[in-house]
Specification:
With about 300 residues, this protein is mostly helical. It is built from 17 helices and no strands.
Length: about 300
């Protein structure tokens, strides 16, 4: 008889971006065993990170808490404290270069997330390769897709397939690969997101996946419909705002529409990679424009 996963609902809610449901379920479930109870708390506090409620995590995870919870606290500290980030990275580098528990998939995943957010993809991949945990493989796939290495991402997904291809995180990873592959695979990606929404509930995570599939297929009106639904659920979601910026331009809407979404994104997600890239391009444009400024003769 197959072993029942006591945290199945909690994990599913986290992976599909239904953060409040994850928190609610985590507070109700009473898993057996210390490791399961710690992992339940890990999932719950990660959901709080998904809601950007970093203070809750920092206040409730104490220095005496278990190692996996300390890893979640480290990520919360990194996300909430921009000034302190160099110190956090330095401490993480020291820990990674010395010794850490290779069986602690939570530490590996949180450390890789910090490196990923820092743009240090090599360091993220190096530590992720130490674990065969499904989430660690899924993050590797995200990184390889960011590097335009769809071929390597597919190889990593075969490992997930061998371990548990029906797991929610495995299905999501397959949908990401389908999106990156394009062509006929775009509909397959959409179908995965839709099936998950039908089984669980529509969330900005799933709706943005559907929107990306629609946009890549040139179905802009359909994309607009699902993105409007995503805005209704969370009007401040970074991925929704980014997709709205792209879509408003593809639909030929007035410039002030995309500018409005961009202003909102800058205000709420200043450290997002999209925003930082935008700022860098603005700075570079201004620098180049100065070289073409007309000179006025005395």
């Amino acid at each position: 008889m197959a072993e029942v996963d006591e945290l199945f609902e909690v994990k599913n809610a986290l992976y599909t971006g239904n953060f409040q449901h994850c928190i609610n379920e985590a507070q109700k479930v009473k898993p057996s065993g210390d490791d399961a109870r710690t992992f339940k708390d890990v999932l719950m506090y990660r959901a709080y990170l998904g809601q950007r409620k970093y203070g809750v995590v920092l206040d409730e995870i104490r220095p005496s808490s278990d190692g996996p919870l300390q890893a979640v606290r480290m990520l919360a500290d990194y996300l909430s404290n921009e000034i302190n980030r160099p110190k956090i990275i330095s401490a993480l580098d020291k820990k990674v270069s010395s010794s850490y528990d290779l069986s602690d998939a939570t530490f590996i995943l949180m450390a890789a997330n910090v490196y990923y957010l820092e743009g240090n993809l090599d360091a993220a991949l190096k530590i992720l390769h130490q674990s065969d945990d499904l989430e660690c493989i899924a993050l590797m796939i995200q990184i390889y897709l960011k590097m335009d290495r769809v071929d390597v991402a597919r190889k990593e997904w075969t490992k997930m397939q061998e371990k548990d291809e029906d797991a929610t995180i495995s299905q999501l990873a397959q949908a990401w690969i389908f999106l990156a592959s394009g062509g006929d695979k775009l509909k397959d990606a959409y179908d995965i997101f839709q099936e998950m929404a039908d089984r669980n509930s529509s969330t900005p995570t799933l709706l943005n996946g559907q929107a990306a599939a629609y946009i890549a297929q040139g179905k802009y009106d359909d994309a607009d419909t699902v993105l409007q639904e995503s805005m209704d659920r969370d009007s401040n979601n970074a991925e929704t705002l980014i997709n709205m910026i792209v879509l408003s331009q593809l639909l030929g809407k007035a410039p002030e529409v995309s500018n409005r979404y961009m202003s909102q994104l800058k205000d709420s997600h200043r450290r997002h990679t999209f925003v930082e890239s935008y700022f860098a391009k603005e700075t570079e444009f201004d620098r180049l424009a100065k070289g073409y400024s007309p000179s006025v003769a005395n």
